[in-house]
TrEMBL record:
It comes from the Bacteria. Pfam families: YkuD (PF03734). One of its GO terms (biological process) is regulation of cell shape. Transmembrane segments: none annotated. Pathway: Cell wall biogenesis; peptidoglycan biosynthesis. One of its GO terms (molecular function) is transferase activity. This is L,D-TPase catalytic domain-containing protein. InterPro entries: LD_TPept_cat_dom. Keywords: Cell shape, Cell wall biogenesis/degradation, Peptidoglycan synthesis. The keyword Transferase does not apply. Residues 1-170 form the L,D-TPase catalytic domain. The active site is at H134 (proton donor/acceptor), C146 (nucleophile).
Length: 171
């Protein structure tokens, strides 16, 4: 594994880095400058985002090879998407008194989730939350702002990721 890996997701649906390339899905709202990104717009924020940690469904998959910190998901895990809440763009336990996305989903897309360092240091209320690298749906349908890859491709990318790695979203 190499350190400081850099991958790029482009608005044309291409994803590449570390001598590999594959297809990806991005936000239903297209790509948008991070300064224009708003909660619920469905857009993927243009910029370079550090990889933070890997969440995975232990009931569905073994933790993949990666140097990212690994966090097994639990049925009550969520991610706060309420701009006025003190835990906005942070993990929370469900049920939560403010709006929060459920991470333990019936579909497969969150079986593997890489948390990206978008709007988290510190979070700016309303500028977007829960920007992840996760699994794509079968036909690569657009996401709500995340980057999505097929499972074999995401597992390959994970092999290169460290806490110093970055994922770039570009036009």
């Amino acid at each position: 594994m190499r350190v400081n890996s850099h991958f790029i997701a482009r608005s044309d649906g291409s994803f590449f880095g570390m001598d590999m390339s594959c297809r990806c899905a991005l936000g239903v709202g297209g790509v948008i400058g991070a300064d224009l990104k708003r909660e619920g717009d469905g857009a993927s924020p243009i910029g370079i985002w550090q990889t933070r940690r890997l969440f995975y469904r232990p009931d569905r998959t073994q933790p993949p090879e990666t140097r990212l910190p690994k966090v097994p998901l639990r049925a009550h895990d969520g991610w706060c998407d309420a701009p006025g809440d003190p835990l906005y763009n942070r993990p929370v336990a469900l049920p939560y008194p403010a709006s929060a996305e459920k991470l333990w989903r019936p579909d497969h897309v969150y079986n593997l989730i890489v948390e990206l360092g978008y709007n988290d240091a510190p979070p700016v209320p309303g500028h977007g939350s829960a920007i992840f690298l996760h699994l794509a749906r079968e036909a690569y349908q657009p996401t709500e702002g995340c980057i999505a890859l097929a499972e074999p491709d995401l597992r390959n990318v994970l092999r290169f990721l460290t806490p110093d790695s970055v994922i770039e979203i570009a036009i």
